[in-house]
Automatic annotation (TrEMBL):
This is Cellulose synthase-like protein. GO terms for biological process: cell wall organization; cellulose biosynthetic process. Keywords: Cell wall biogenesis/degradation, Glycosyltransferase, Membrane, Transferase, Transmembrane, Transmembrane helix. It comes from Rhododendron griersonianum. It comes from the Eukaryota.
């Protein structure tokens, strides 16, 4: 039998439960979302550690869950920019892991959270490594020891040990050399784009120049994007703000590599410029998909000619002004 009173009681009960659930979620959101002065949720698993939970390493043979990751460059950059902004917000607050974590966690666990918190600041050294040695290479200025100098071995050891450790980690987890190359590429792409914009966003929020907001990641599956992903092609269909830095740095390194090799061979100073030439070559090799997207590809995921033209213009201005500044400083 249908009872109006029963229906009303059920409705009230459901409304009450929904209201309690909403209040509970709102309470948790206030506790978690603003406890670290950030609305980004991905970093807040550290809260349970501070509440007394102990972390354990769990890596079962059978995957514990199935998820879907981003498969195109635009979603990767938008998502990573949000993550970078949240990490820097935590770093700039009183909850910075290096000063807040040691009270509640072990030193190693504090270092792990600290690595995540300071990860976005990779943009600074990578922008320097991708521009300054190249500019000096074009102008015949050596910034590293020559290949015959014993100090050259220090740079070689640091570079090779870093790459070797990453290769070992990839291979030990079932990956391949192709996986390692892709990880290197996406790390470099994120560092010069997402980490830069995410850090600037967090700093501007801290200074009160921007309001806190949460950027969502696109969950819609596109057939063309899926096809490019399955064939190993990067879909460069993203905003010019995110794409331009990547294209600009690639162009700068291509120009510096060609010009630097030519200058070194003519002046017979290849030993002096070896590290700078190799650095440009390494960046150009890792940035080959960008070169391919500018010149060779004709599909929808290619880099638009307008982006290429703008990037060439900015690169020319940077190299011209940089050369002028160096000539003035070295007089």
């Amino acid at each position: 039998m249908f009872s109006p009173c029963s229906s009303i009681r059920t409705s009230v009960t459901l409304d009450s439960k929904c209201g309690v659930m909403l209040m509970f979620k709102f309470h948790i959101w206030l506790q978690v979302g603003f406890l670290y002065f950030s609305v980004v949720e991905d970093y807040f698993t550290g809260l349970v550690n501070l509440k007394g939970w102990k972390s354990v390493y769990c890596d079962p043979v059978r995957p514990a869950f199935l998820g879907v990751g981003t498969t195109n460059l635009n979603d990767v950059l938008v998502q990573s920019t949000r993550w970078s902004s949240g990490s820097v917000e935590v770093t700039l607050s009183r909850f910075c892991p290096l000063i807040y974590g040691p009270k509640k966690m072990s030193a190693l666990q504090t270092m792990c959270y600290g690595e995540l918190a300071f990860l976005p600041f990779y943009f600074l050294p990578l922008w320097c490594f991708a521009t300054i040695p190249q500019l000096c290479l074009l102008n015949g200025i050596a910034v590293y020891p020559e290949a015959s100098n014993w100090f050259f071995m220090v740079f070689l050891f640091v570079f090779l040990s870093s790459l070797s450790k990453h290769i070992q980690e990839v291979l030990s987890t079932g990956g391949s050399m192709r996986s390692w190359i892709n990880e290197q590429r996406i790390w470099m792409i994120k560092s010069v784009t997402c980490h830069l914009y995410g850090s600037l966003d967090a700093i501007m929020k801290r200074l009160g120049m921007r309001e806190a907001k949460f950027m969502t990641t696109n969950k819609v599956i596109d057939d063309e994007q899926t096809r490019l992903y399955q064939t190993g092609k990067i879909d460069f269909h993203t905003s010019i703000m995110l794409l331009a830095p990547l294209v600009i740095l690639t162009i700068i390194n291509v120009v510096s590599f060609v010009g630097g090799v030519t200058r070194a061979m003519v002046a017979r100073k290849f030993s002096d410029m070896f590290i700078q030439v190799f650095l440009s070559l390494f960046i150009v090799t890792m940035g080959y998909p960008v070169i391919e997207g500018m010149i060779l590809r004709k599909d929808k995921g290619r880099i638009l000619p307008s982006v290429t033209i703008l990037s060439v213009l900015v690169s020319t201005i940077f190299l011209s002004l940089g050369s002028l500044v160096l000539s003035v400083l070295l007089k």
